[in-house]
Amino acid sequence: MPQTFRDAKCYRSMLFVPGHKLDWMLKAPKYGPDALILDLEDSVGVAEKPAARIAVAKAIKELRAKPIGLFVRLNAWRTGYLMDDLNAVVVDGLDGLILSKTEEPQDITALDLVLGELERSRGLPIGSIEVSPYAETALAMYRLYDICMASQRVKRAGGATGPSAQGDGGRSLGLQYEDENAAEGVAFGAYSVLQARAAGIVHIEGGMCAQLDNLDMVRRLGEKSKRLGASFASAIHPSHIPIINEVYSPSQNEVDVAREIIAALAEGIARGDAAVRYKSRLLDYANLRTAMDVINKAKAAGMDVGNVPTVEIPAY
């Protein structure tokens, strides 16, 4: 039986913000990201973690009424910090958790169980908080399918262009290239996309640019990631957000063509033809599904999609 896709809110951009900087977290929405990742892991020193947890919880409470996704990057299992992180930040308004250095499916299963208990004890909707695994070792990348299948809370994963050679994942693999946009990373990225998609994940993360002032790299990395199946990207600097939002939004031409394809197929289906000719192309239900994906992404980005015919589409 085909794996069921896991529905979730569509985000184009997610902005990392250090969890010990309350003023930064509170002003971050003005830069236009679709979601924030309030970080309790690498950007926060050990001595600052207790105060950072308090600041992140306060930020969630103050930002929860805004139309922005609120995620927290947790410290990994086996650090001794994770349970304190969860006790502090699982509050009303939290949309998701990023589990850094996810190593095996049991890491996700355990987090799912603890989250369920916290949701019950705090009167939160059961299963409402997402979990996104960060596969940052060779073993984790090899097991990504099983990691994604460990819980239905997992709705975002990937790494379409592969790991940066300078990061934890690149070091684990022994990668030697310098350019974040290097072609050598595609093999690892494509394998991650394949595993995530096989697990029913449709929200695939693209490459993140670590060069703060290289906006050209942000665009090139985003466009490459999108070609490889990514639907969103994270950023470590606010200046990257407008470019990421543009790259991961359909262009007006893409929207117009998608609408025309849907209209052409709607007319054909109405007269009993599920395959129709459109500008020297033969279209069928597969094209209809792809066109609807474009329209749905455009709607999520707040674009005007015009008058789109309603068409009943078979599941497969």
UniProtKB/TrEMBL annotation:
InterPro entries in the record: Aldolase/citrate-lyase_domain, Citrate_lyase_beta/mcl1/mcl2, Pyrv/PenolPyrv_kinase-like_dom, Pyrv_kinase-like_dom_sf
Residues spanning the membrane: none
Membership in a protein family: Belongs to the HpcH/HpaI aldolase family.
Gene Ontology molecular function, alphabetical: catalytic activity; magnesium ion binding
Protein name: HpcH/HpaI aldolase/citrate lyase domain-containing protein
Residues engaged in binding substrate: R73, E136
Source organism superkingdom: Bacteria
Cofactor: Mg(2+)
GO biological process terms on file: oxaloacetate metabolic process
